[in-house]
Amino acid sequence: MRLVRATIARAYALSLRAFPRRHRVDYRAEMVESFDRALSAQWRDRGRWRALRFGAIACLDVVGAGIGERRRQRRRARKLTLIDLLGNLGRDLKLALRSLRQARTFTVVCAVSLGLGLGVVLAISMFLRMLTATPPGVDADGLVELVITPQGPLRAKVGSWAIETWSYPDFQDVRDADVGMQVVGWLVDDGVLSSTTVAPQTASAMFVSEGYFETVGVMPQQGRALDPVGADRSSAQPVLVVSHRLWQSRFDSDPGLVGSVLTFNRVEHVVVGVAPEGFRGHFNRRAATPVDLWVPLRGHPLLADEAGVRHERGVDLVRVFARLSPDTTLAEADASVASLMSGLAQQFPATNEYRAGSVQVYTSTGVNQLLEMGIVSVMFFGLSGMVLIVVCLNVAGMVLVRSATREQELAVRQALGASRGRLLGCLMSEAVVLALAGGILGLAVVYGGTAALAWWLEGPLPDELRLNAARVAEGLALALATTVIFGLLPSVRFSRSGMFRAIKDDAGAGSWRVGRVHRLAAALQAGIALPFLVLGGLLLDSARVTATADLGFASEGLYASALSLSAAGYSDEDRPFFIREAQEKLRQAAGVTSVTVADGLPLDYQPRRTRVSREGDPVLVRAQTTRVGLGHLGTLGIPLLRGRDISDQDHAGSELVAVLSESLAMRLFPGEQALGQRIESDLQGDRARSLTVVGVAADVATYQMQTARPQIFIPLAQHPAARIFLIARASADELSMRTAFEEVIADLDPEFSRPTVVTGARLVRDNIGDLIQQSTLAGIVAVVALALSALGIYGVVAFMVASRTREMGVRIALGASRRHVVVAVLVDTCKLALPGLLLGLLGARVAVRQTNLVWHHLGAVEPVAYALAIGAALAVALAASLPSANRAAAVAPIEAIRAD
Amino acid sequence: MPNRSQDPAALIPLKHSTYRVLLALADDELHGYAIMQALAEMTEGRETILPGTLYAALARMVDDELIEIVAGPSDDASGGPQRRYYRRTEFGCAVARAESERMGALLDIAQAQDIFAREAK
What is the pTM of this model? Predict the structure, then answer.
């Protein structure tokens, strides 16, 4: 029996192994004793078999409880580990804060470098997002744009870029054909909006074909959309949808606006809906005025009239986009449109030959703009990348310096038992603190920058330019990645340094030396600001030259007002009469000496470029084209050099004539007399036309001060325009001229929107302001680049000095003066920076050649800009290395001697 | 792991073994084997607890601050290994009370449903 009991006890003791070791240590003896006593009691009271049964159950119970206890302890250990880790992290962060507070220069240089760099990178990323963002509310999935791809001779003439506008009949054919898409046409034009409560005013309208809102994927906030697809168009009453912005600003959020009647372009329209807040159309029109109204396309003045262009296939007017049907792919839609257009080309060869149809994926900017954006994006991404490289080099350089000077401290900590992982944890905490500081500074730079921009532009910024949680996260993540990768890696190198060597050597950076990578980093940083400095300088010079150059016209005493004749509902026949009447009435106003009309003004920011060539010559020259009325040159004060101005003999039906600016005449007819020569012009919306040169005028500023000046003036009577400027030269003051313009227009047509008068002086002032803004921007970029390069050079030179402390000490001990040491460091800096400066010079030269910066010949300014930029970059490099040079000169010789 | 929140509700419902140990440690400080005996006495032999379950429960309860280890009486002359004595803490009392209330509420429901009377029939 004793053997049986011993066996049971042995089995129980073995079963106890199921418990974790710690538990066994604490409880084993007690558990065995309790089991023995319980077994004895069972044996005594209930017999051996019962006791045996009890023993077996108790063994199983121990195993089960032991397994449970093991699980519990494992869970507990996991919790403890997490808490320990968090505790360690908190301690490390506290230590890192203390340590960074002591190394103020290092912290400030790293944080400022990170902050500036990340600020620039974030700003660029936000700017690019703004350019290409899909407008709010638009469901871009499945949207496509329909464009015309020029072929053969048309391609040779207009280039390979897609033609984005379609003639109305072509659009109708595509819309009505079975191409697997819901096709919508649109165009944007100004019109005059009025009602019983709102005075006539210009409004920007998007004229859209039926189904626009459904296709875009937006439903009005109030009321309904315009006609849905399939609505009976013939019986439809003119309707419109008002933008949320207009509803709030002009109609004071009137809840009864839907259903009321507004007069738009002299036609009464019923307001059927208010667009949702923020919706500004499917097209990203950043620079343009926001859309106020959506009006049916057939209500456009050019299309409403049966005699207008609605049946002309030769006039491109409408842009077209579509939503693919669920069962249609882009390739199928593309093939359908191509086939349809090919049929039209055979049917209407005069207008449609060489015009192939194509379907492209929708982009908010349009196909052509996207290509241009692509180039801009690549440039900006390149700039971002450069800035990031500089920041990374700076951070790496500074961490190298710090690690070099802390090598001893790290070695001592290792010697005292700190594991490498623990040391890395400390270094990592410093990197995290630095990243946070840099990230916050970067975000502050962006926040401040956008606030300044909003103040400068005197208006709210688009949503893409506002900081939000995603941008904040992006900035902090970038800061963390930069700091951890480029800040921690050098630290890792130092954390594995030889303990004894480091402890033995107390003269600074042990045996680490400035290597090729550091030299390259310093060189790059010295040169990186150079292109920006040169570009900034040249832009500033351009501003100076432009602001002081002869503009070619007399801006003082010049007044003009834009009149949108098509929007006001004037037909082609009525327009000349209206223009003549307006000129006559204004001429009679007090102080007015002469009056004219034109479809544009100098410095009006409206490029009206056409391509002109000498007749029979394939070389095309881009020229600013202005349609002008009688006496235009005289009224604007543009000197006529040869021949005559546009006169009343140049009417519709007579020989087509043109007056060239001197620079255009010289380019088309170098060394020849331009008068009487014939040129070909590819006027907008027209086919190539042959014109006779009847006069040559002095060069005059075109749509901006700094743009080149080839220019062509053609008679308005021969080339009608839908929107003209009524221009007057007067001795009267601005206020009386404003009144005169208002009275003339109100007298002629009370329903015409109130004219806005612009003065010549204002145009000049705006343009100079624009130049100053551009130069300031270039200057800011150059200063940021210089600041970053200074920070980087400081880091590398500081490391260089730290690694040569012993050498400096020995030099001083051997009698070198402190001045000599400073000079030696500065000379070393020059040697470091020189290759980078030469590289930067090369970059600047390429940048100046590639960027068509200035309209005038640079002459002697360019070399001066290069010299000044090199001087500035070198001065900054030397200034950045001066603190390190002084530190080197202050080394006590005893340190150098003690080091060995 | 110490139960820092000291909220009885956080531990409710209790494991059966924990509740029984808490009840067994009514007023006295008992060692492990005594707890086994007390429990058997309290329930007139209907409920027993085996040493494996008991000591796993004791370790857990100490961690949860339901019971605490106290020095044994000087007259403990079992002759065996040094025994640990356990005492119910105030938190342990609160937890036992909360668990009893929970079970009492269940019992009330059972009584309301006349479960005992039906069994008797």
Answer: 0.56
Question: Would you state the pLDDT for residue A767?
Answer: 82
In whole angstroms, give the CA distance from residue B59 to residue B55. Answer: 6
CB–CB contact A62 B83 (8 Å): no
Query: Which three-class secondary structure state does DSSP give residue B45?
Result: coil
Taking CB atoms and an 8 Å limit, are B50 and A57 in contact across chains? yes
pLDDT band, very low/low/confident/very high, at B1 (cuts 50, 70, 90): very low
For residues A455-460, give the mean pLDDT: 71
A79 part of contact set with chain B, CB < 8 Å:
yes
Whether A1 shows a pLDDT value over 90: the answer reads: no
CB-facing half-sphere around the CA of A756: CA atoms within 13 A: 6
Most distant CA pair in chain A, distance? 140
Q: DSSP states of A214-281 as a string?
A: HHHT---SEE--SPPTT--STTPPPEEEE-HHHHHHTTTT-TT-TT-EEEETTEEEEEEEEPPTT---
How buried is A260 (Cβ within 10 angstroms: 0-12 exposed, 13-18 middle, 19+ buried)?
A: middle
State the Cα–Cα distance between residues A600 and A625, nearest whole angstrom.
9
Contact between chains at B52 and A72 (C-beta distance less than 8 A): no
Q: Identify each DSSP E strand in A349-418 by its residue range.
A: 355-361
**Cis (ω within 30 of 0) for the bond into B13?**
yes
What is the phi/psi pair of residue A714, to 5°?
Answer: -125, 155
The DSSP letter of residue A522 is H
Of A121, A135, A132, nearest to A449 by C-alpha is A121
pLDDT at A678 over 50: yes
Interface ipTM: 0.88
How far apart are the CA of B52 and the nearest CA of chain A, in angstroms?
A: 4
DSSP annotation of A567 reads T
Q: How far is B102 from chain A (nearest CA, A)?
A: 25
CB-CB under 8 Å, A30 with B55? yes
CA pair distance B63, A677, nearest whole angstrom: 105
What is the structure's pLDDT at A692? 92
Contact across the interface for B51 and A62, Cβ inside 8 Å:
yes
CB proximity list for A872: less than 8 A, separation 6 or greater: A533, A786
> Cα-flanking dihedrals φ and ψ of residue A661, to 5°?
-80, 160
Residues of B with CB under 8 A from a CB of A: 1, 31-33, 36, 50-56, 58-60, 63, 78, 80-84
Out of A28-37, A457-466, A486-495, A683-692, give the one with best mean pLDDT.
A28-37
Measure in Å the smallest separation between the Cα of A421 and chain B Cα atoms. Answer: 27
Binary contact (B59, A58; C-beta < 8 A): no
Is residue B93 predicted with pLDDT exceeding 90? yes
- Chain mean position to CA B116: 26
Residue B56: list chain A partners with CB under 8 A.
19, 23, 65-66, 68-69
Model pLDDT for residues A278-294, shown as the tens digit of each residue:
888 888 755 556 788 99
Selecting from A19, A33, A79 the residue whose C-beta is nearest the C-beta of B33 gives: A33
How far, in Å, CA of A412 to CA of A244, rounded? 69
* Interface membership of A77 toward B (CB under 8 Å): no
Tell me what pLDDT residue A742 has. 86
Determine contact: A611 vs chain B, CB below 8 A. no
- C-alpha A636/C-alpha A308 separation (Å) is 33
The answer, yes or no, to whether residue A500 has pLDDT greater than 50, is: no
Amino acid B88: pLDDT: 92
* Kind of pairing between the strands at A293-296 and A689-697: unpaired
- Select the residue of B32, B33, B52 nearest A65 (Cβ to Cβ): B52
Query: A77 to chain B: which residues are within 8 Å by CB?
Result: none
Residue B53 predicted with pLDDT over 90:
yes
